[in-house]
Amino acid sequence: MRFRILGPTQVLLADGREIPVGGPRLRALLALLLLDAGRVVSADRLIDGLYGERPPRGAANALQSQVSRLRQTLPAEQNPIEFHPAGYRLAVDPEDVDAYQFERRAEAGRRALAGGDWPRAATVLREALALWRGPALADVPGAPAQAARLDELRLAAIEDRVDADLAMGASAALVAELREFVAAHPLRERSRGQLMRALSALGRLAEALAEFEAARSTLAEQLGTDPSAELAAIHLAVLRGEESASTQRALPSQLTTFVGRDEELKRVGDLLGERRLVTLIGPGGAGKTRLAIEAAGRVDGEVRFVELAGLADGSDVPQAVLSALGLRDAGLRAPAEPGRQPTDRLVEALAERRLLLVLDNCEHVIADAARLAARLLGACPALRVLATSREPLGLAGEALCPLSGLTLPPLGASAPEADDYAAVRLFAQRAADVVPDFTVTPATVDTVLRICRTLDGLPLAIELAAARLRALPVAEVAARLDDRFRLLSMGSRAAPPRHRTLRAVVEWSWDLLGDAERTMARRLTVFAGGATLEAAEQVCGLPREEVVDALTGLVDKSFVEMSGGRYRMLETVRAFCAERLADAGEADDLRRAHTAYFLEFAWTASDHLRRAEQLHWLRRLDAERDNLHAALRRATVAGDAADAAGLVAALSFYWWLRGMRGEGARLAADVLDVLGAEAPPGLREEFALCVYNASLSGSGPLDSLRTQPWVIRSLDRPPRQPFLLYLSGISAGPPSGGSEHVNELMRELRRLVGSDVWINALDAMGSGSVQMWIGRWDEAGTALDAALDGFRQAGDRWGSMITLGVLGELAAWRDDPEAAGAYMDQAMGLAEELESTVDQADMLRTRGEIGLRAGDLGAAHDDFAAALLLAQRSGAPEFVAGARLGLAQVARLRGDLVEARRFCEVALTGGLTGWYVGDATRTEIMFVLEQIAEAEQAGPGAPPSADRA
User: Fold this and answer.
1) Host H or E run for residue 388
2) How far apart are CA 195 and CA 191, in angstroms?
3) Could you give the count of Cα atoms lying within 13 Å of 789 in the half-sphere of its Cβ?
4) Phi, psi (rounded to 5 degrees) for 631
5) Largest CA distance in the chain
6) Please, is 318 exposed, middle or buried when counting C-beta atoms within 10 Å of its C-beta (0-12, 13-18, 19+)?
7) Over residues 191-204, mean pLDDT
8) Residue 329 confidence (pLDDT) above 50
């Protein structure tokens, strides 16, 4: 089906037959849905559009009824109306709606106009305008804003089409059309200017001047204002009889489509309307030149493009501008006056000329380009300058528009989702140029995403990679990106040398750096994920007074990006500079300095994680996660056992708080390969933490540490990482022998650590948990209350959250659901405050257990299902299994034994062996499977067995 809303609402079948839609309200409803074809439209918006500001009572029911009637009107086999919780969706391709077709064709025509392809622009714009059959949304009186927007687009498309016709030559018919248009829209200055230009081109100068006077009079009478500067410039050009009365554009024509940059294009357009100097800055290959051309092509009036990349000397900049303007040396004053410079000639030529001057690739002649721009802007009030450079011109009033890579999809995006992002669209379009049947499919989307992400979304790099598909499969291109400079070494022969290869792009920028900037650039490559100023000062080894200047220079020259207080390199730039670091023989020294800095940072952060400033330091650790893990991996590969084990120890609590147990386990297991099977001298605590972390994934020589009492008694000082005490308990399990053994162990621990508030709170929490499990509820409550007070005194949200969860379980065992709910609400609030997905999963699972004990199977099911989703997302196998066990219990108690057995059997797979909590969960699952087997033998109708106490 095809749909029309540019006029009365219509629905047409493929053969052209019209389907009667019904009365005005049904037509209005359909039109409102078509405005957002393919997207969900809220019920509130539909009610507003149908009934206005005063909807009738029961409007929601009335809307539902109207939707039902509309469904009946459309063919049953093609009925595209879908119900969603948020509203309704018309599941049709926007290309089947005339309004969408119009906007797409109007934009294509505008692009052709900007690129100087006048015949195509005129043809496409006429096709777009032919879609109109009357006022837009004629059947929807409740959508005046949308109708006005479409009508404004129609008027702009008419003016664009007129511009294309004027560029191909004015005619009497065009003048007649414009007179009619101006009479209908007397306040539109663009069309008035077009009429003046058309009359001037036909030699009817008096009529053209009369049109200006008519415009002046109309604007004064109706708005109390004078004609715009643009219309005044056309008036002046007509008076002078200059050719510039028609729009002049001297922009390079482009052979490829322009992809992405919609936001930047709008920003540049807005800035050019407000400021007289706009500079596009960014690294090589970011697409600054192409964006400048596209933006300039959308500006009304005269445009001149000046390419500066080929200049060897900055003194040639004024002459390059003269040439772009078509001004000969003797053309302004003949004979030339002695001592008169090209800049003087430019000032005279541009003094009263309304012009946009595009200065492209200013970076290697930055000082001369800036001096010329300052002189011209100061002397020529109607002049605007759009510059592209890898660093700002540095003039007062300069507006900057930074460019980096194109937008990239999130990890795991599907093929249709990925196509919404500019980097992927660009790769797909350029790939199709060399492999006509290439598309991004579910089979190739991950590979394409890897290419685009590895290349930082840089347009030039993506285009070079896509060009390689002439000879290599896409998977092979992705596999070879580790040697990107060799792979991306074949660009367009017509491109400037600095844009033919990826290496040439970066070398062009490298050559513009000073000595200190080059030193800083190559040394910054030791960082992963960027660096703070403090880290750069400590690691890079430059004199302190030089660091800020060097970093500032690198940022100004687009070699480094500064965002959120961090200095980052694009991976392509980083790869190039890493080669320079290796050439300088500095790689090993920088690695050791980097590791030393982040080892100290990790220990400092670890101490703060148990205090009130916990959230602040969690965010700091998040920001440095890539650096910390890079330092750990490098130390492991280099065999630096003390540094590698120290980083595992320092990061253990952070990994737990952030639910990174799987990644931490893998990193710790690699360090154990370096440490060996026994603790090296002086590294007993670090060795134990490596073993415990590795055990969380079911690996590591856990038996070598024996029991938790053995670990505590082996310490000759308070642990530097107190989280060792918790991790040992959940890995190896509590001491055997009952509560007396627990109390004896805790007394030994207190003698060791003294008055440490956090460790004593942890001690009380562990003791209270054991007392609860053996049925000493009063003692448990006393210990847990003390633990909660201690964690709150220390400022640790995590310890408070875990303790509140245990208190919630204790309250449930005491048949106090109200208290249990209050404790769990507090615990959930802290889990959300910590932004810990894995702890939220744990608290939901605990709350589900409480609901299960209270007999509220519906609430328990919802909590277990939500816990399963969060646990899967965070990769915590013990909580995944625990949530599935809970769902199995709910199913068993509801009598669905098949579903209960399925949940249990799935819960037994993965990550439940080799450590205490995993083994305990596995034991619980086996117990429930026995209950299910008993129920199966008892047959239907038998009551389910009682829950475990």
Assistant:
1) strand 383-389
2) 6
3) 7
4) -60, -40
5) 116
6) buried
7) 86
8) no
**pLDDT at residue 333 in the model:** 39
- Say how far apart CA 129 and CA 804 lie, in whole Å: 67
Give the residues across from 279 on adjacent strands.
387, 400
| Cβ neighbours for 899, distance < 8 A, ≥ 6 positions apart | 888, 891
The answer to whether the beta carbons of residues 464 and 501 sit under 8 Å apart is yes
Distance CA 930, CA 916 (A): 21
- Mean pLDDT of all residues belonging to the chain: 83
d(C-alpha 300, C-alpha 356), whole Å: 9
pLDDT band at residue 353, thresholds of 50, 70 and 90? confident
Rounded distance, CA 662 to CA 333, Å? 78
What strands, in cross-sheet order, belong to the sheet with 302-307?
Answer: 249-250, 302-307, 355-360, 383-389, 277-281, 399-402
Give whole-number Cα distances, 487 to 466, 468, 511, in Å: 11, 8, 22
What secondary structure letter does DSSP report for 18?
Answer: B
The tens digit of pLDDT for each residue in 390-444 reads: 889 989 999 998 888 888 888 878 888 888 888 888 888 888 887 888 888 888 8
The contacts of residue 928 (CB under 8 Å, 6+ apart) are 885, 888, 889, 892, 900, 904
CA 433/CA 443 separation, integer angstroms:
20
User: In whole angstroms, what is the distance from residue 636 CA to residue 640 CA?
Assistant: 6
Q: Is 938 helix (H, G, I), strand (E, B) or coil?
A: helix
Locate tokens 């809220």: which residue?
A: 42
Contact 915, 702 (CB under 8 A): yes
d(CA 862, CA 845): 10
User: For residues 289 and 268, what is the distance between their CA atoms, to the nearest angstrom?
Assistant: 13
**Do 661 and 875 form a contact (C-beta atoms < 8 A)?**
yes
Beta-ladder partners of 2: 12
CA atoms of 357 and 122, how far apart (whole Å)? 26
What is the C-alpha R_g of the chain? 36
**pTM, 2 dp:** 0.64
- Per DSSP, the three-state class of 489 is coil
Which among 711, 756, 747 has a CA at the least distance from the CA of 610?
Answer: 756
Residue 82 forms beta bridges with which residues? 89
Instruction: Tell the residue number behind the tokens 């220990």, with chain if given.
Output: 603
Angle at 553 between CA 547 and CA 555, to 5 degrees: 100
Scan for tokens 């939220």, then name that residue.
840
Cα(81)–Cα(647) distance, integer angstroms = 57
- Note whether 715 and 752 are within 8 A (CB): yes
Measuring CA to CA, how many Å separate 200 from each of 166, 190, 281? 11, 15, 40
Distance CA 35, CA 50 (A): 14
Helix or strand run (H / E) with residue 794:
helix 777-794
